[in-house]
Amino acid sequence: AALSAEARALYQREPNAKIRLLQGLRPHICPFGDVMEQVPVGASVLDVGCGAGLFLLLLGRQGRLREGLGFDVSAPAVAAAQRAAQGSGLADTLKFEVRSIEEGIPVGPWNVVTSVDVLHHVPAAHQQAFVAALCERVPPGGRLVLKDMVARPRWR
Question: Comparing C-alpha atoms, which of 24, 29, 26, 54 is closest to residue 114?
Protein backbone atom coordinates (compact mmCIF):
# COMPACT_ATOMS: atom_id res chain seq x y z
CA ALA A 1 0.00 0.00 0.00
CA ALA A 2 2.84 2.41 0.82
CA LEU A 3 4.58 1.85 -2.52
CA SER A 4 1.28 2.27 -4.35
CA ALA A 5 0.74 5.61 -2.61
CA GLU A 6 4.28 6.64 -3.51
CA ALA A 7 3.69 5.61 -7.13
CA ARG A 8 0.48 7.63 -7.27
CA ALA A 9 2.33 10.64 -5.86
CA LEU A 10 5.11 10.32 -8.45
CA TYR A 11 2.61 10.39 -11.32
CA GLN A 12 -0.10 12.64 -9.85
CA ARG A 13 0.51 15.31 -12.49
CA GLU A 14 0.89 12.86 -15.40
CA PRO A 15 -1.43 14.05 -18.20
CA ASN A 16 -1.80 10.55 -19.67
CA ALA A 17 -4.55 9.04 -17.52
CA LYS A 18 -3.75 5.47 -18.57
CA ILE A 19 -0.10 5.78 -17.51
CA ARG A 20 -1.11 7.56 -14.28
CA LEU A 21 -3.55 4.78 -13.38
CA LEU A 22 -1.22 1.92 -14.32
CA GLN A 23 1.69 3.27 -12.26
CA GLY A 24 -0.51 3.56 -9.19
CA LEU A 25 -1.68 -0.04 -9.62
CA ARG A 26 1.65 -1.67 -10.51
CA PRO A 27 2.86 -2.07 -6.89
CA HIS A 28 -0.22 -4.23 -6.26
CA ILE A 29 0.84 -6.75 -8.90
CA CYS A 30 4.63 -6.41 -8.81
CA PRO A 31 6.57 -7.02 -5.58
CA PHE A 32 8.67 -3.87 -5.97
CA GLY A 33 9.76 -3.94 -2.33
CA ASP A 34 11.33 -7.38 -2.71
CA VAL A 35 12.95 -6.47 -6.03
CA MET A 36 14.30 -3.17 -4.67
CA GLU A 37 16.06 -5.03 -1.85
CA GLN A 38 18.24 -6.66 -4.51
CA VAL A 39 19.72 -3.28 -5.45
CA PRO A 40 22.57 -2.24 -3.14
CA VAL A 41 22.43 1.26 -1.68
CA GLY A 42 24.51 3.68 -3.75
CA ALA A 43 24.13 1.65 -6.92
CA SER A 44 24.47 2.85 -10.47
CA VAL A 45 21.53 1.18 -12.24
CA LEU A 46 20.65 0.53 -15.86
CA ASP A 47 16.96 -0.40 -16.17
CA VAL A 48 16.22 -2.20 -19.45
CA GLY A 49 12.60 -1.82 -20.54
CA CYS A 50 11.90 0.82 -17.91
CA GLY A 51 8.42 1.73 -19.15
CA ALA A 52 7.31 4.88 -17.33
CA GLY A 53 10.31 4.63 -15.00
CA LEU A 54 8.54 3.56 -11.82
CA PHE A 55 11.22 1.14 -10.60
CA LEU A 56 14.06 3.67 -10.92
CA LEU A 57 11.91 6.44 -9.46
CA LEU A 58 11.06 4.33 -6.40
CA LEU A 59 14.74 3.47 -5.95
CA GLY A 60 15.61 7.14 -6.25
CA ARG A 61 12.96 8.25 -3.78
CA GLN A 62 14.32 5.77 -1.25
CA GLY A 63 17.87 7.08 -1.70
CA ARG A 64 19.21 3.77 -3.03
CA LEU A 65 20.76 5.17 -6.23
CA ARG A 66 23.86 7.10 -7.12
CA GLU A 67 22.53 7.35 -10.68
CA GLY A 68 20.19 5.56 -13.02
CA LEU A 69 19.42 5.26 -16.70
CA GLY A 70 16.25 3.68 -17.97
CA PHE A 71 15.36 2.99 -21.55
CA ASP A 72 12.26 1.74 -23.29
CA VAL A 73 10.89 1.52 -26.81
CA SER A 74 7.71 3.44 -25.84
CA ALA A 75 8.10 7.18 -26.34
CA PRO A 76 4.96 8.06 -24.31
CA ALA A 77 6.18 5.94 -21.37
CA VAL A 78 9.65 7.50 -21.46
CA ALA A 79 8.13 10.98 -21.61
CA ALA A 80 6.08 10.13 -18.50
CA ALA A 81 9.23 8.89 -16.76
CA GLN A 82 11.03 12.12 -17.59
CA ARG A 83 8.13 14.22 -16.28
CA ALA A 84 7.96 12.17 -13.07
CA ALA A 85 11.72 12.48 -12.53
CA GLN A 86 11.50 16.24 -13.05
CA GLY A 87 8.49 16.58 -10.75
CA SER A 88 10.09 14.51 -8.00
CA GLY A 89 13.43 16.32 -8.03
CA LEU A 90 15.28 13.27 -9.40
CA ALA A 91 16.07 14.62 -12.88
CA ASP A 92 19.76 15.05 -11.99
CA THR A 93 20.02 11.45 -10.78
CA LEU A 94 17.79 9.65 -13.29
CA LYS A 95 17.84 9.78 -17.07
CA PHE A 96 15.38 8.11 -19.42
CA GLU A 97 15.64 7.57 -23.14
CA VAL A 98 13.70 6.05 -26.00
CA ARG A 99 15.70 3.14 -27.36
CA SER A 100 14.95 -0.23 -28.87
CA ILE A 101 16.85 -3.33 -27.87
CA GLU A 102 17.99 -3.62 -31.48
CA GLU A 103 20.01 -0.43 -30.93
CA GLY A 104 21.96 -2.28 -28.26
CA ILE A 105 22.17 -2.02 -24.51
CA PRO A 106 24.09 1.09 -23.38
CA VAL A 107 27.54 0.64 -21.95
CA GLY A 108 28.07 2.58 -18.78
CA PRO A 109 29.29 2.62 -15.26
CA TRP A 110 26.46 0.34 -14.14
CA ASN A 111 27.04 -1.98 -11.24
CA VAL A 112 23.42 -3.17 -11.40
CA VAL A 113 21.40 -4.02 -14.51
CA THR A 114 17.67 -4.54 -14.01
CA SER A 115 14.81 -5.70 -16.18
CA VAL A 116 11.43 -5.82 -14.48
CA ASP A 117 8.45 -7.46 -16.20
CA VAL A 118 10.07 -7.33 -19.63
CA LEU A 119 11.17 -10.86 -20.48
CA HIS A 120 7.65 -12.06 -21.32
CA HIS A 121 7.55 -9.40 -24.09
CA VAL A 122 10.63 -10.89 -25.74
CA PRO A 123 9.82 -13.68 -28.21
CA ALA A 124 10.80 -17.07 -26.76
CA ALA A 125 13.36 -17.65 -29.52
CA HIS A 126 15.21 -14.47 -28.47
CA GLN A 127 14.99 -14.67 -24.67
CA GLN A 128 18.30 -16.47 -24.18
CA ALA A 129 20.15 -13.90 -26.32
CA PHE A 130 18.39 -11.07 -24.47
CA VAL A 131 19.47 -12.37 -21.06
CA ALA A 132 23.01 -12.96 -22.37
CA ALA A 133 23.12 -9.33 -23.58
CA LEU A 134 22.03 -8.15 -20.12
CA CYS A 135 24.76 -10.26 -18.52
CA GLU A 136 27.36 -8.66 -20.81
CA ARG A 137 26.56 -5.27 -19.27
CA VAL A 138 27.07 -6.45 -15.68
CA PRO A 139 30.65 -5.83 -14.55
CA PRO A 140 32.58 -8.28 -12.36
CA GLY A 141 31.10 -8.05 -8.87
CA GLY A 142 27.96 -6.40 -10.26
CA ARG A 143 24.43 -7.67 -10.15
CA LEU A 144 21.71 -8.60 -12.64
CA VAL A 145 18.18 -8.27 -11.28
CA LEU A 146 15.71 -9.97 -13.57
CA LYS A 147 12.04 -10.21 -12.50
CA ASP A 148 9.22 -11.26 -14.75
CA MET A 149 5.53 -12.06 -14.67
CA VAL A 150 4.21 -15.48 -13.77
CA ALA A 151 1.55 -17.40 -15.67
CA ARG A 152 -0.50 -18.35 -12.61
CA PRO A 153 -2.45 -16.97 -10.97
CA ARG A 154 -3.49 -15.01 -14.06
CA TRP A 155 -3.85 -11.68 -12.18
CA ARG A 156 -0.15 -11.85 -11.12
Answer: 54
